[in-house]
Amino acid sequence: MRKHGNSFLVLALALTAVLVDCNSEGDILHAQKLVWEDPNNILKSWDPTLVNPCTWYHVTCNNDNSVIRLDLGEAGLSGPILPQLGNLTNLEYLELYGNNINGTVPEELGQLSKLISMELQQNLLTGPIPSSIGNLKSLKFLRLNANMLTGEIPIEILNLIRSGNMSVMNISDNYLDGTIRRSEQTGFSITTVIMDQKTFR
């Protein structure tokens, strides 16, 4: 009987750990909701009293009830991206394109080690592109075009392209410094790095 009791205790502790994890992700997303202006009430289902955020609209979870996708493109949102989003450890898709999101791209997004797609284009983002994004070896699609980003493209991100990890990087229509030298374009395809004459100042 004691053996069964111990097994039940282990299972209960494991379930508690999962629930705590889910609740922390819900806390992160609710904190993000609080700093965003949401005139279309897109985030009305983001209720922090629920066990986890997996039933919220525009949120997708895996079988462990951990957030893997945020789909908030063209949602009419404005305000900053919180650094705490970098703690959504299983996030694979961050889709925030076509909003009025401002402020900087947080360095902490470089902690999203499972991220496949970062779609932040057509917003009002300023400041540099964080070099920490170069840590994201799983990142295939990086779209930062049509913002107000400044500074140089971090070498760490260019290395993702050189290594063949990243498929598409669109940084057109920003205010970046410098150029990409011909020697740095070796192996780049037209569909990989998308720039225009306005990209660099």
UniProtKB/TrEMBL annotation:
It is an enzyme of class 2 (transferase). Its EC number is 2.7.11.1. It comes from the Eukaryota. Keywords: Kinase, Serine/threonine-protein kinase, Transferase. This is Non-specific serine/threonine protein kinase protein. It comes from Dioscorea alata.
